[in-house]
Amino acid sequence: MTEDENELRRRNICDFRHSVVAELGNPYLNRGQLTTLIKEKSKRDYEIPYSKRTTITEGCIRRWLCLYRKFGKQGLNPQIRQDLGKSRLIGEQEQNGIIALLESNPELTAIAAVRKLREQGVIKTEISSSSLSRFITSQGLTSKERQKVIMKEKSLKFDFFSPLECVQSDVMYGPEIPDKNGKMRKALLMTFLDDATRRILYGRFSFSEKSILFEDGIKHILKAQGMIGRLYTDNGSSFVSNQTRRILDILGITLSHTKPGIPQGKGKQERFYRTVRDQFLRPLDISAVKNLDDLNARFNTWLECEYHRSPHRGLQQHITPLDAWIAKAHHIKSIASSIDLDRIFLHLLSRRVYKDSTFTLGGTLFEAPAILSGKRIDIYFDPHPPVDRVLVSQGGKEYGDARIVDTYANSKVKRGYSRSSDLQSGYEHSDLPVNLTATNMGGN
């Protein structure tokens, strides 16, 4: 049992004992009333913490009452054993050997550790599984506790050398500002931080944290800076989109996530957001911010003029992020000229073409080439609204852009057969004279 678990156990026991004797400490109770009340309490059933017993004897209640009167509630705490954490059945040398072996080899089980120490001659006595289990638990060396230590070590501070070798991204909740309709809404800041230099490669406030905003940041960095080696994010919905994963797989960029419940890996981003709150948002007059564009303009000015030009304690010799970037810029790998980023960042979906050669996307009806009627096709499109251009592909062959169906224009198309109109149309478009008589046409 760990120290925290022991403390919780003592606190729960103390609270229970206090609930039993608290009213007995009333100074207005005479001896007869006190005796009657103790007898009554000894006949009740209780849910006693960490015990299978359900009743308490009169002698036990009187002893607790004596301690309560003498030392207060603290006197009801169970005494700490002098040999707590020490096994009386396992020798001191054997205990030290088990502890040292398990700490240096976290993957070993306690039984395997004892077997190995017995082979080495460190342990010479028989140790029962129950005694070993109690000892391991008291030392906080259970398999679960040792795994926690391993995970903590893996999440300790890490640094990359080259710019863009690892780019971290996260989202911070910012102030409320008016949207285009004048309604106050919470602004969210999504940023991309270069691990090696602490430079902010992309940062923008918006009213959502959709995955396309994450993709916008990636695309901006690839076009403006160079090739990203690895992206490191948490498990938020913005960072786990299937479309985003498909795009990153095409580019060969690794996407890594922090372990759930272990925030230590996001330390650099959290530290930057603390700087944003202290040095940008705190001095900012939020009431003077007109809209998102205004807020982003102010943020970018602060970013380039102050943050990137201020010494950073997380960098060697406390240089600025801008100086660190310039010093290592020659390590950046450029994007191959053959890569069409605009095409790669198009979203891909599958659709079945209706018999009238149409399909829908986001509630909009598009018309595909008639040859694709009834077939399943792949469509590529820019996800930013409005979606008015969709590239159609089927079986690896491209068929160009689909046309948005104009239902109003289609309603004006004449359908059915009219003899008089067809005849008139035929006259107007034939080589025959318009004033032909019925007899010339074979009429009566």
Classification by helices and strands: alpha+beta
CATH fold name of the largest domain: Nucleotidyltransferase, domain 5
- Spatial strand order of the main sheet: 6-9-10-11-8-7
- Outline the biggest β-sheet: 6 strands, antiparallel
List the uncertain runs: 82-87, 415-444
Instruction: Give the rounded overall mean pLDDT.
Output: 83
Q: Could you explain the architecture of this structure?
A:
With about 450 residues, the protein is of the alpha+beta class. The protein folds into four domains: about 5-75, no CATH class; about 90-155, no CATH class; about 165-330, Nucleotidyltransferase, domain 5 (2-Layer Sandwich), CATH 3.30.420.10; about 345-444, no CATH class. It is about 40% helix and about 15% strand. It contains 15 helices and eleven strands. The protein has helices at about 5-20, 30-40, 60-70, 90-105, 110-120, 130-140, 145-155, 210-225, 240-250, 265-280, 290-305, 320-330, 340-345, 405-410, 420-430, and strands spanning about 165-180, 185-195, 200-205, 230-235, 255, 345-350, 360, 365, 375-380, 390-395, 395-405. The strands form two sheets. A six-stranded antiparallel β-sheet has the order 6-9-10-11-8-7, with no helix packed on it. β7 (about 360) and β8 form a beta hairpin. α1 (about 5-20) crosses α3 and α4 packs across α5. The longest helix has 19 residues, at about 5-20. The chain is elongated. The chain starts with a helix and ends in a 16-residue tail after the last helix. The model is unreliable at about 80-85 and about 415-444 (pLDDT under 50).
